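Escalation from tier 1.

The customer reports that the assembly of two entities below gives different structure tokens on two consecutive runs. Tier 1 could not reproduce it. I'm attaching the input and our single run for tier 2 to review.
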Amino acid sequence: MNQSIITYLTKKRENHLEELKELLAIPSISSLPEHKEDVQKAAIWVANALQEIGMEKVEVHQTKGHPVVYGEWLKAEGKPTVLIYGHYDVQPVDPLHLWESPPFGAEIRDRKIYARGASDDKGQVFMHIKALQAILETTGTLPINVKFLIEGEEEVGSPNLPLFVEENKELLSSDVIVISDTSMIEHGKPAVCYGLRGLCGLQIDVKGAKSDLHSGLYGGAVQNPIHALAEIVSSFHNEKGQITVEGFYDKVAELTAAEEAAYESLGITDQSFIEQLEVPEMFGEEGYTTVERTWVRPTLEVNGIYGGFQEEGIKTVIPSEAHAKITCRLVPNQDPDEIVELLQKHIQSHTPPGVTVNITLLDKGAPFVTPFDHPAIQAAGRAYEKVYHVPTSFTRMGGSIPIVATFDQILRKPVVLMGFGLPDENFHAPNEHFHLENFDKGLETLCYYWYELEQSL
Amino acid sequence: MNQSIITYLTKKRENHLEELKELLAIPSISSLPEHKEDVQKAAIWVANALQEIGMEKVEVHQTKGHPVVYGEWLKAEGKPTVLIYGHYDVQPVDPLHLWESPPFGAEIRDRKIYARGASDDKGQVFMHIKALQAILETTGTLPINVKFLIEGEEEVGSPNLPLFVEENKELLSSDVIVISDTSMIEHGKPAVCYGLRGLCGLQIDVKGAKSDLHSGLYGGAVQNPIHALAEIVSSFHNEKGQITVEGFYDKVAELTAAEEAAYESLGITDQSFIEQLEVPEMFGEEGYTTVERTWVRPTLEVNGIYGGFQEEGIKTVIPSEAHAKITCRLVPNQDPDEIVELLQKHIQSHTPPGVTVNITLLDKGAPFVTPFDHPAIQAAGRAYEKVYHVPTSFTRMGGSIPIVATFDQILRKPVVLMGFGLPDENFHAPNEHFHLENFDKGLETLCYYWYELEQSL
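Tier 1 run:
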């Protein structure tokens, strides 16, 4: 890579920060109707920025909700094409009084820029635009073809994006999808994330008598819906932390030796988790480490349980109903629909006598993994290393980003998650910020990446 | 018994009803401070009524709360002494708009008198006064000695009565305690209740991480407090409906053959319960009938459970805490303190790794039983039969009346619960009423009882 690109970035740094502040100043809160105009404004800002650096076919596509911004540059004939996804919408800012500077003021303190969206995800979208501009203005061309897909509804679950992607498969076709909306492991430790867990969520409603009963008059003679629910819930796991739902693990892909080695090299210990979470000890599926349990093993967690009396003191009641909400995190190659069926069977066969049970599907999403040894993944690792001078971590994440699964399913191309945030940058919370060290290094990393990718794909 | 007593009752019926309406018109709601004066007024009304029929040492004893009314007649030398307990306070009346006539209007419709307190317990207290008056005015004497203890705090849990009883043991000493504050089995089926279950209540608080965790990021790697709680809850019973807490049943008195026969003769079927409660089937401790399960077997019921997300939809959280409230119904000769200890041990030894558990005692009260074959119990049965012309049912109740356990413990005398209410008379609800058939027959029954008791003790 031409080192004058780095010189360009250094020279332009103050202009970049001023421009970023402009974008951060737009309160594009997608969940609040009163900010609808601001969301539009941010879309137009992004479109203008794409136009300005030389992207073509730039368009603000209206949807049923907030718009999708598209732009492309496809002049690198014979070279790979990258689809860059990001979002320009942000989370609400309440509680406002906990912010040390205005959430849309974009104040720089202690080498960090403080604003809603600084890290999630305006800052990282902005870096992608400016990295390409640096290459274009310095070399007159790009080592790759690029397409931008920047949406305005990520913070409300991307309700309209799947349809847009489905209807614009051709427009969005690429060799690889790159997303910068995640975090590094910690300060100074870059990470490429190549897999996310999927999800399915169920509600279990247990019904006993037609109304709450006096536990003195009827206690001991009817099935208590809370007991029945506790029996169902406790039947999901055995004492080894394994999920006992028949067939649950059947399609789970085992770790490759290379992945196992990569995770071990991260040097993550249980002790650090124990201290951070203040739990007596870690607990999970026997035979797996904490990292494996959260990244590559499926889970079943009860997210909520309720029934009967919840106030202070005592009320001698046998409730008529009891409820639980459960979610499973799924891993390749589990199929959410299949898992939902297995769960339903398990619940039905573990419901004790004397009550009826009703199961409702709340949500589902497929897991996703790009093969660990995919060249686009490994190239991202090398790009980080050129700038950060430490080995890149290759990680998977326990959470689910539904839009990534959507890309995986509709576009069927490898997804590379290369984030520049830090885990403590208060996404979705007051005093969100973005560390300028990663703003600077991230810009360089992205430039390196496009050249690495040119060589790899 | 002199049949002119019956004639007297018939003659005085209208006067009695007018007097009862007076008492029912006083809104002596013990739980509402704005009715404090009304509660006093009702106490004075009762004291005057006792004085009027010839009771002696009549006194309105002030307490820290509402007063206790005492009166006695001890001129039946060598005869047994009966302590009659009842209460002149009533429950609140809301929701007022559901009442078909004013709650303190005491309207008679369809042979029932509608008013708050009609059945629970002013009506039944009034009957005791008038039955004795009938005997006194007709015969000039009584076949027994009587002491009245009529309190004004029953509906708020009798907070000041135990101390009063403790401090007035001598004054209250008797051979038998008679309470009319319960119900018959159903219309036309009188019942003598000779036992009540005791109670102990605990709260279980399970604590995991210091705060709620994202179930994507940490799911599978920490113990979920809801899972831990479900495991504890489901460990309390086995699939036979038996309680698995070690030692729980050790001191439980088994049924006598006479009791078993008495219960069987009630002819209560599961089908009637199933229809009434709308449950798919009855469920409880193997080897016992529904009646036995609710009257003479101890229970452990979870009255409430809560933790994590309870709203619509889904929230992918591992909660920091989960909670359950449990109560046990206890039977002779279980000791509440011992049972609490056994429960604590059980919970501790069934808490899975990765969480801490905290147990709080909420309440406790001893069970009580008067021996089934006690002459005072059997005499009550005979008295009912003389008036109702059907066999009396001898029952125990699944609920707990703490003041009865207090009498049992402090005064150590047999308690006879002979009620004249009906189960559907809306105690504590709008349109409380008292069936005048049982008002009439009850007055006669009480008169017969005192003569039966004279012969039996």
